[in-house]
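Late entry, pyridoxal-5'-phosphate complex.
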Amino acid sequence: MRETFTIALNNRFADLINVSGTMTALGGSVCAEDVRVATSAMMARFVNMHELQAEASRVIAELTGAEAGCLTASASAAMTLSIAGAMTGLDPAAVENLPQRPGEKCEVAVQMGHLCGYGAPVSQAVELAGATVRIVGQSTLCADHQLEGVLSDRTAAALFVASHHVVHYGQIPLKRFAEICHAKQVPVIVDAASEYDLRWFLDQGADIVIYSGHKFLGGPTSGVIAGRRDLVRATYFQNIGIGRGMKIGKESIAGTIAALEAWAVRDHDEIRKTETAALTLWQSALAGVDGVTARIMPDPTNNPLDRLQVEIDPLKTGWSAAQAAAELGAQSPKIIVRNHKVEQDSFQLDPCNILPGQAEKVATALTNVMTRKTLPTAVSDARNGGVNSYLAWLA
Ligand SMILES: *Cc1c(COP(=O)(O)O)cnc(C)c1O
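Prediction complete; structure with ligand written out below:
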């Protein structure tokens, strides 16, 4: 008899340890028990969705200090919909006209250094709403006058991206960015999909801030929107238009509300201690390995999270960071490291998603793999990995 999916899940899909971070390609995050219970309880009943979203708004407002909030399918959807909302307000005909006929007020200002990819282009999330990206400044330098020069009566919103993916110098800081935009009555939308702080961005002047429910918050796949009531209402209104295809289900709303509540009472210090213990364990597993340097590094966007940066000198080890990352990924269980810097001969170990007992398994695998004299050849393809993984699917 064919095994049921529940059995298959335990048998065939369990063999993976995520030390790469909150990667949507690995399913985002692992959720707390309350989140699981809320999600599955909601599956077996009906609910008025407006009432449920109003409850989400109440919880989001309480945690972020915002006037209101709502939930959608993902942070990516939240960007598209909040931009659409800034264009249409509460005009239903304007909502139905998107994305083809966005009207006069259809430009979105974004610093060039913020036009990154998070698995898909930021610019595309803007354009999906029917808006036009107005690039501000150059990739590594953006001055105040360049933002001022782009803002006009045609500007619907300005988008600010907070992420390790963006250029980290030469950009206008959020507070100044918001001052300039507000002087011209332009609302500021912040993509903080992968950031921990639920208040800072609004405190700095954001009118809307967006988080991924499935990253640090540990909820089901969802996008959390918090901010000015009028903008949140206009964002939610997109459900009668382009938001329909970005619909969030009752179970994900329930799970995300539970995740927000769990976040508020989470013992962050205790979690940090567990994470630090894992980092130290891995660091000592690599101590003394010739050609390998392991350093604990802070998160580049100041989230309260450190990672272990593992630097390889291929002349001494005889193999590259890409080879080591590939070999760790081929262990049983598979150890999936943070590999976006393998071209610079390093990879990172992110402790924020490990489950009890996994830190030791990672340490053992590190010792096994990294002390070898030779490793199988691996194609270093961190740059094209995302695309190639999709192309390989069912091929
Ligand atoms: C992950 C991420 C996104 C996309 O988030 P989803 O909720 O998966 O759509 C957008 N922007 C940044 C900066 C991200 O890190």
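Residues 24, 74-76, 118, 161, 163, 165, 191, 193-194, 212, 223 surround pyridoxal-5'-phosphate (CB under 6 Å). Will revisit in the morning.
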